[in-house]
Amino acid sequence: MELRVSLDQDLEQILAVHAAAFGGRKGEEIANLVNDLLVDVTALPLLSLVATVKNNIVGHIIFSKAKISPDQAVSSVILAPLAVHSDFQAEELAAN
């Protein structure tokens, strides 16, 4: 397994991982959230990491900026969403 920063060309595989990890309608909702976060300038700075096995993306996580309260200047980062493809959830990848 390798961990690396995601690339623009990874988007389709990233969305597929989230859809597979959560399944059904929930998977579609999470994939849409991920897609929105990746282009949301208010979420910057953003760190998007992928886990790959044999050059296939099997995991993904986003670290993004967030406001705790719109009236206070509190700096925070959210670690979410996190997805591991359903085919790899029982593997070491999910434990690492």
From TrEMBL:
InterPro entries for the chain: Acyl_CoA_acyltransferase (IPR016181)
Domain of life, per lineage: Bacteria
Gene3D superfamilies the UniProt entry points to: 3.40.630.30
Protein name in the entry: Uncharacterized protein
Source species: Sporomusa termitida
